[in-house]
């Protein structure tokens, strides 16, 4: 119970920290663009702020994931690292913050904000879907660390939005970042799944097909449910890269990977 209280406090403090960082960056960037007479819409400024905070969270999550994976790879099922449990509280607070931030960014994109809260909320839900994935029984810190590492692609997906909003979509930086984004996304969000199965099989000296039959059905179903959207988003990234290679511009809707 004592650790739960600490976790709740950690979640509360970090949640306030995420929101404070979002507000501070919004204030600083608004002042910066106005001081330089740069015509940047309020929506795009908030979009950049959301991407900045998301990028910071992605780096933090990835660092924690790498530490956990490196510490627990000798025993993928039973090795324990405290960061696996503690960062879950931080990730939970970020999820709450991100939901609120995305809602505020969505409102800033509307020509006229509806007066009724129900109308505002329904318009938001039509454009956003949320995925919550938290389930384990105190084992498998190695796999938790692997899931933290999927955020390694986050800095590149968010940097793409920032480069676009600041008028650098046609720059070399945008192209190089796009390549890094696709490579990191494919590695950390797609190849991570067969890697986890192979790591489990290596510990028990069985092949990957035997792993599929050995582990509980809900683990396979859960992994598949998470993997399929990643394959979809990777496909959109590759199509966007092909589109740019043909001299066409990628739209704002195509840039955002949710």
Automatic annotation (TrEMBL):
Keyword Lyase listed? The answer is no
Q: Which residues form the TLC domain?
A: 43-246
Listed A to Z, the keywords are: Membrane, Transmembrane, Transmembrane helix
Is GTP-binding among this UniProt entry's keywords?
no
The annotated topology with respect to the bilayer is: Multi-pass membrane protein
Cite the SMART domains for this sequence. Answer: TLC
- PANTHER family given for it? BCDNA.GH12326, CT120 PROTEIN
Protein's UniProt name: Ceramide synthase-like
Organism of origin: Homarus americanus (American lobster)
Name the gene behind this protein.
Tlcd3b-L
């Amino acid at each position: 119970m004592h650790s739960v209280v600490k976790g709740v406090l950690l979640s509360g403090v970090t949640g306030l920290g995420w929101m404070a960082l979002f507000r501070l960056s919004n204030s600083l960037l608004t002042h910066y663009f106005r001081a330089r007479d740069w015509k940047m819409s309020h929506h795009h400024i908030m979009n950049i702020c959301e991407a900045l905070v998301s990028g910071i969270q992605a780096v933090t999550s990835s660092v924690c994931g790498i530490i956990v994976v490196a510490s627990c790879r000798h025993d993928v099922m039973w090795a324990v690292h405290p960061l696996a449990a503690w960062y879950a509280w931080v990730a939970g607070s970020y999820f709450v913050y991100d939901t609120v931030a995305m809602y505020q960014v969505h409102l800033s994109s509307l020509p006229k904000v509806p007066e009724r809260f129900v109308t505002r909320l329904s318009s938001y839900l039509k454009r956003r879907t949320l995925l919550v994935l938290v389930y384990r029984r105190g084992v498998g810190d190695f796999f938790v660390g692997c899931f933290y590492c999927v955020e390694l692609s986050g800095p590149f997906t968010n940097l793409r939005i920032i480069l676009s909003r600041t008028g650098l979509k046609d720059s070399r930086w945008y192209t190089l970042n796009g390549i890094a984004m696709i490579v990191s996304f494919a590695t950390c969000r797609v190849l991570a799944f067969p890697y986890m199965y192979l790591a489990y099989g290596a510990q028990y000296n069985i092949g990957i097909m035997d792993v599929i039959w050995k582990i509980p059905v809900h683990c396979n179903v859960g992994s598949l449910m998470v993997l399929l959207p990643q394959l979809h988003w990777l496909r959109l990234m590759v199509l966007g890269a092909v589109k740019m290679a043909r001299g066409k511009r990628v739209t704002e809707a195509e840039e955002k990977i949710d």
